[in-house]
Amino acid sequence: MRRLTIAIVFGGCSEEHDVSVKSATEIAASIDRQKYDPIFVGITKSGEWKLCEGPAAAWEAGECRRAVISPDRATRGLLVGEKGECRTVRIDVVFPVLHGRMGEDGAVQGLLELSGIPYVGCDIQSSVICMDKSLAYVVARSAGIETPDYSVLRGVDVTVPDALACPVFVKPARSGSSFGVTKVECADEMDAALAAARRYDSKVVIEQAIAGTEVGCAVLGNGADLVVGEVDQINLSHGIFRIHQEAEPEQGSENATITVPADLPTALRDEIRDAAKSIYTALGCEGLARVDMFLRPDGRVVLNEVNTLPGFTAYSRYPRMMAAAGMSLSEVIDRSISLAMAR
Fold it and tell me: For the chain, what is the largest distance between any 2 Cα atoms, rounded to a whole number of angstroms?
């Protein structure tokens, strides 16, 4: 049987570039090479696309050639610059291991729709909605899903609504891995929090803090055929969860402990899993996503955010939740590719 050519696209222009490289490294190590022939397309921080030997900490130092995915459906693959000429490399499926802006926000998904090449993960519409926290809240609320109370500031607007009382979270509307996120305990901290958020996005979301604990659930599948990982639980000693910004995240988090399965009664974990599926479906997700939620003391579940291309690093939550449910990373990759081809 012919091996399928899988283009693993990683890196990117967002603040999550380094996380993406780590995720792609884990996928490269776990993909079944008896079934798949992976090729690696790295995107530099400045936006150059390169066909390279593989993801690594210094991948650009290796042998790389300029390469882009053609939007022409007759090409159905990469255009690779080589010795002054351009050759074509056919691709069966793209696995966009990209986090944040220009990767998780519908931009790459739009290119891949034009190309006609199947790709892993959510489509354009659900990627756009989930990337923008305020849009996700609008859609979720219309489906009867509880979200935090929130307000949106655009441009240089500094008018904070009186309806929201500290503590609140100030976030870039379209960013990930807690970059630019600040927990504001009093009004005097607001200006600095807004400045931090606007480093990443001109659109800022201010959310009412939710009393409770953070929980999450990995979801895999299309339509009603969903596989759900074990629920995890984040216990914070202080601050907010930002493991991707730690100096050595592989060694754990300075202020957080992640428990999977969550230390909660089985019935409550099942309710959280059902809530994750409902959120995933309401937001139109396909392929895979990680649904992050708050669990209130009274047992109610509140949406936090949905990551349509969650991390696959050695310390990431999505593969750990799936592993706890009995599905290895190799199996997750295999199922994700099959879902992409079936869509």
Answer: 65
Q: How far apart are CA 152 and CA 197, in angstroms?
A: 12
Report which of 125, 126, 132, 186 is spatially closest to residue 160, judged by C-alpha positions: 186
Question: Annotated catalytic sites, by residue?
Answer: 19, 22, 99, 244, 250, 290, 311, 315
The residues with which 299 forms a beta bridge, in sequence order, are: none
Provide φ and ψ at 187, rounded to 5°: -60, -30
How far is the CA of 62 from the CAs of 42, 46, 56, 78, 236, in angstroms? 11, 17, 9, 19, 40
Q: How many CB atoms lie within 10 A of CB 188?
A: 9
pLDDT band with cut points at 50, 70 and 90 for residue 130: very high
The answer, yes or no, to whether residue 246 has pLDDT greater than 80, is no
Q: Both tokens of residue 127?
A: 């990627």
Q: In this predicted model, what pLDDT tens digit does every residue of 281-335 receive, in sequence order?
A: 999 999 999 999 999 999 999 999 999 999 999 889 999 999 999 999 999 999 9
Distance CA 28, CA 8 (A): 8
What is the token pair recorded at 314?
């050695």
What token pair was written down for 76?
């159905």
DSSP 3-state of 115: helix
In the chain, the percentage of residues whose pLDDT exceeds 70 is: 92
Q: What is the token pair recorded at 221?
A: 């599948």
Tokens (6 digits) for 281: 């479906």
**What SS3 state is found at 3?**
coil
Indicate the pLDDT class of residue 279, thresholds 50, 70 and 90: very high
